[in-house]
Amino acid sequence: MYIPKHNEEKRTDVLDRLMRSQPLASLITMTSSGLFATHLPLVLHRTDDEHAILRGHLARANRQWKEFSPEIDALAIFSGPHHYITPSWYPEKAETGKVVPTWNYAVVHAYGPLKIVEDPDWLLTHLNTLTGIHEATQPRPWSVSDAPADFIASNARGIVGLELKVERLEGKWKVSQNQSAATQVAVAEGLEALNTEAGRNMRALVRGERR
Questions:
Q1: What three-state secondary structure class fits 93?
Q2: Is the pLDDT of residue 92 over 90?
Q3: 23, 63, 129, 138: which is deepest, by most CB within 10 A?
Q4: Which residues, in sequence order, are CB contacts of 198 under 8 Å at separation 6+?
Q5: Measured between alpha carbons, how far is 82 from 174 in angstroms, rounded to an integer?
Q6: What backbone phi and psi angles, to 5 degrees, belong to 52?
Q7: Helix 120-135 vs helix 149-156: angle between axes, to the nearest 10 degrees?
Q8: pLDDT at residue 97, rounded to an integer
C-alpha cells in the first residue's frame, strides 16, 4: 500500500482498535486461478506488540480455503471511517480557488501466512469467542450454547477455521494531515454540520482523536 509519511500510522494500539472495531475484513489470497477475496469477520488475538493472530472461518463450499497458495502471504484489509471531502469547506477556495476534492479514510492491512484449521474443538472455541464479542452489546446476549448441541455440531461441519499469523501491519490514516491547521478546522466543522454518523466519525479523526 502506498503510504505517504504524514499518513502512516504505526502505533499498535491504534491499529488494533481499528481491527477490533471494524472486524469485517477482506481476506485476499493468491490461488491457481488468480486473486480471490472473501469478506468475513476476523478476531484479533494479540500476545504482545510483536505477535498477533487473526482467526476466522469460511464455508466449506468456499473454494478459497482449498485453492489458496500457502507459500504466498495472505492479506486481510480492515476499513475504518471514510468520507468524501468537498473543497467547498476549504478557506483556500475563496482565497485562491486552487482546491480539489479528496476522500479521507483509515485502513489497516495485515499480512502473513494462512493456515486452515478443521479441529472441531478449535472451531467451537472460535465460534464462542466470535459470538461473545458481538453479542456483548445486546440486552439479552445470545450464546452458542442456547442452540441444541447437535444443531451447532451440524452447522460447524459446514465450515473450516483459519488463522492468519500477522507478520506485518500497515496503517494509513488519510485524514487531512497535509492541510493547514485552518483547513483542518474547517473540514472538521463541515463534517460536523452534516450531522451524520459517518461525518462525526471522520471529524473525530481529522481532529486527531484516534479510534
A1: helix
A2: no
A3: 23
A4: 81, 82, 83
A5: 9
A6: -155, 155
A7: 110
A8: 78
In 171-194, which positions are buried (b, 16+ CB within 10 angstroms) versus exposed (e)?
bbbbbbbebeeebbbbbbebbbee
pTM (two decimals):
0.93
Angle at 159 between CA 154 and CA 160, to 5 degrees: 130
DSSP code of residue 68: B
Run of H or E residues at 151: helix 149-156
Q: Residue 164 class from Cβ within 10 Å (0-12 exposed, 13-18 middle, 19+ buried)?
A: buried
Share of the chain above pLDDT 90, in %: 91
Strand pairing report for 102-112 and 43-48: unpaired
Superfamily (CATH) of domain 5-81+104-175: Electron Transport, Fmn-binding Protein; Chain A (2.30.110.10)
- Residue 6 DSSP one-character state: G
**Residue ranges per structural domain of the chain:** 5-81+104-175
Check pLDDT > 70 for residue 210.
no
| Rama region for 152: left / alpha / beta (φ>0; ψ in -120 to 50; rest) | alpha
Give the Cα separation of 34 and 21 in Å (integer). Answer: 30
Residue 50: per-residue pLDDT: 86
Neighbouring-strand partners of residue 82: 105
Q: Mean pLDDT, the chain, as a whole number?
A: 95
